[in-house]
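Q: what sequence does this backbone want?
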């Protein structure tokens, strides 16, 4: 079992990574002194994950004499909205949860984001714990304290920076993930290699890394970036590599055709093509990124001609947009990035040029 400490503005918390760890969550909570025996817990999960792991978490907590409730969402990105959060508030009120109590996010990134935002805002903040059950959530969304929900205008437009008390990554649960869900997480894993680690990128390319080590290295990259820039005032924005166009693709297809990781994969290809067009990198870097995405069954394009004016307009409405410019994370090489402001009115032309590069 591996452990990482993440120091933040209000303290620190532990991130545990290893196999067959979920059943020990009660011990981790007790050993970290997060709560007391009067604390009530609400496990927030979805209709796919709770039947698999909910009773294991509940039993572990009840063995420590904690009082446990649960709230189950329907699965999917469509649930990540203010209506869902309002329903959680009502449930917590009905069950008299107060500031001494704690929420547990048991699930993927959607559950984690919703639970974190509910925790950040209910009674102006109560404790919460992350137990991510997808690769995407373990290597990315569960770590760093970004919480939020979507609006009709775009992803994660309402949210808060709010750190959990504890993160528990049980890598054994990843072995039973459907192939497409696992591949979804690999989009973020590859992203971390692209921006921060030639060593990780090469190990992924050659498939010479174990599952637990892969999760550990990715979480370590994420925690180092977060600790250097918790509130994303500067360098933390590097984690947005592939996300500018990626988020736009998700919205363009109404969050139905492409998952988050798939969209980020396509977004990374767009980003490295823009890097090449702006003379930041050679053509070989495009080929490298396309090769690794192919290895992990991730898309490199949308499979059809998109309305690039529409796509550019969506990018312009992203939270990373400021005045007439969008801050892109572009690559000079693997592990070497650069922030480049792109005029939103020139983005359509750039996307058109991207479509003409490396056509399969």
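A:
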């Amino acid at each position: 079992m591996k452990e990482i400490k993440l120091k933040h503005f209000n303290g620190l918390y532990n991130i545990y990574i290893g196999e067959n760890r979920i059943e020990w969550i009660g011990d981790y909570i007790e050993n970290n002194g997060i709560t007391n025996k009067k604390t009530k817990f609400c496990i927030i999960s979805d209709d796919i994950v709770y039947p698999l792991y909910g009773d294991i978490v509940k039993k572990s907590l009840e063995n420590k004499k904690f009082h446990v409730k649960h709230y189950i969402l329907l699965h999917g990105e469509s649930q990540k909205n203010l209506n869902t959060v309002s329903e959680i508030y009502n449930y917590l009120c009905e069950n008299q949860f107060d500031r001494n109590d704690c929420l547990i996010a048991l699930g993927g990134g959607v559950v984690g984001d919703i639970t974190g935002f509910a925790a950040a805002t209910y009674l102006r903040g109560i404790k919460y714990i992350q137990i991510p059950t997808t690769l995407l959530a373990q290597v990315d969304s569960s770590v760093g304290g970004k919480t939020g929900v979507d609006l009709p205008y775009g992803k994660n437009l309402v949210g808060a920076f709010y750190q959990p008390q504890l993160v528990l990554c049980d890598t054994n649960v990843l072995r039973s993930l459907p192939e497409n869900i696992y591949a979804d997480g690999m989009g973020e894993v590859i992203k971390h290699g692209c921006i921060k680690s030639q060593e990780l990128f090469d190990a992924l390319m050659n498939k010479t890394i174990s599952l637990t080590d892969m999760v550990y290295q990715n979480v370590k990259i994420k925690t180092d970036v977060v600790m250097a820039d918790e509130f994303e005032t500067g360098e933390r924005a590097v984690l947005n590599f592939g996300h500018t166009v990626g988020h736009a693709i998700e919205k363009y297809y109404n969050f139905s055709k492409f998952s988050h990781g798939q969209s980020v994969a396509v977004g990374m290809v767009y980003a490295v093509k823009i890097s090449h067009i702006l003379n930041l990198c050679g053509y070989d870097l495009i080929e490298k990124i396309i090769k690794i995405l192919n290895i992990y069954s991730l898309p490199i394009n949308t499979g059809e001609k998109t309305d690039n004016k529409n796509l550019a307009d969506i990018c312009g409405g992203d939270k990373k947009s400021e005045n007439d410019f969008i801050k892109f994370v572009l690559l000079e090489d693997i592990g070497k990035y650069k922030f480049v402001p792109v005029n939103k009115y020139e983005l359509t032309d750039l996307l058109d040029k991207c479509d003409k590069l490396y056509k399969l």
